[in-house]
Amino acid sequence: MTWDFFCEFKYNSHIANIISNGVRNLVDYKLYINGKWVGNGSAMPVYNKYDDSLIGTLPIADVDRVDEAIAAAERAASVMADMPAHKRATILFRTAQLLQERREEIAKTIAAEAGKALKFARIEVDRAISTFTIAGEEAKRLHGETIPLDAVPSGEGYFGFYLRRPVGVVAAITPFNFPLNLVAHKVAPALAAGNSIVLKPAATTPLTSVFLCECLEAAGLPPGAINLVNGSGSTVGEWLVRDPRIAKITFTGSVPVGQRILSVAGIKKVTLELGNTAPIIVAPDADLETVAKKAAVGAFYNSGQVCISTQRIYGERAVYEPFTEKFVAATNAMVVGDPLDERVDVGPMIAKSEVERVSEWVDEASSGGARILAGGKRKGNVYYPTVIVDAKPEMKVVAEEVFGPVASVLQADSFEDALEQADKTSFGLQASVFTRDINRVFQAIKKLNFGGVIINEVPSFRADHMPYGGNRNSGLGREGVKFAMEEMTNIQMVVIKTS
């Protein structure tokens, strides 16, 4: 970090602290409201998920703080709406630059507070940099188009066009598993479209959002354009969702919480990114060695705590056994341990309770006749990458979202049967097919009712500018910067009588 960069910040007391091993040695992070860093109230501890050491605290926002944040965002909404597109773009590009300069510090913080292996934490920072860069580009391309009103008799003598206008205040409620890039996917497009934001990160991983707000502040974002509050979903999240000043809610998390949001939000725009039980279909012509290695990473990186993590793998009889053998070998080759260790592939889960839940699900499958070929054990907050065979469709490890390092290999009678089983789910986020046969590709596209069908790559593939979102219980709306901006704007139709 250069001295000039350090001096760009406003010398808030929480910034000028000692950095140890790339992670700040802090206990006094602050909330960010109306362009100021504020404290007071109860402080919530944030722990290293591998060794349970304290890495910082962040105040818990009470109802008055949340009200203050929404009021600040409401005032800033008109400032952002009036800001020229090129100025919004400049702020977003500058934010990307600042994230790049702080890449290692932020990556190590993600590894500590989220338990994500450092190699994948660095990739997350790189993706967030890309997301803000794309948002800067898209800020300059947000526009409407003309409508040929005279296409119908009643439109003769009229000229029409529509504009896209920012909705106003966006409430962004984000998950723990990507504490930077999934935040970026809500914050960057909201700002690009000219909105203001109240951000509530996951209570288990809020510190990365503090760093992002520091970068946005240094990049020149006006006071109130982003406001950071902290606390539980049942309090802070509920207050945000219910508030009539919030025009748009963008949420990533579980299906039950998504249902709750829809039930209490009132009349406002809502985007939901929810669960999945991501399947892979392995056709007989696939390169099994390649698929096995890709599937192991797709299933177990971030301890499987990814909504598009590989969970179900279907193979015909001809490939089932040889694939399973290769998949188990690839699974056993993954290095498990401290996420800050450069060699590690799989670190801890987000909480002891989650380790216990996953362990119970695996035990339930085993008691019901499924066999565990790899893993099936825990150490502290780590659950080892686990491969299951002979699981039944109704078992939790197959039917429900595990959100942990567990994948089941399932046998199908044919490629068509594999497609049928893969699609037999209440979810529909992303699915994968590995094949060289173009006819099978189009067969899969037609059959699979998923928001994304990925060919010859795992379901966790995502480019940050593509439309991303699910069907069925996997959610509503789409992310991906351009598409999120459309969700965060309203169409204003203009009709001019010309004669």
Give your account of this protein's structure:
α5 (118-139) packs parallel to α6, α6 packs across α16 (481-487) and α10 crosses α11 (317-332). The longest helix is centred in the first third of the chain and has 22 residues, at 118-139. 52% of the residues are buried. It is built from 16 helices and 24 strands. The strands form seven sheets. A seven-stranded mixed β-sheet has the order 16-19-20-15-14-21-22, with helices on both faces. The model is unreliable at 1-21 (pLDDT under 50). The protein has 499 residues and is α/β, with parallel strands linked by helices. The protein starts with a helix and ends with a strand. It has two domains: 3-274 and 475-492, 3-Layer(aba) Sandwich (Aldehyde Dehydrogenase, Chain A, domain 1), CATH 3.40.605.10; 279-464, Aldehyde Dehydrogenase, Chain A, domain 2 (3-Layer(aba) Sandwich), CATH 3.40.309.10.
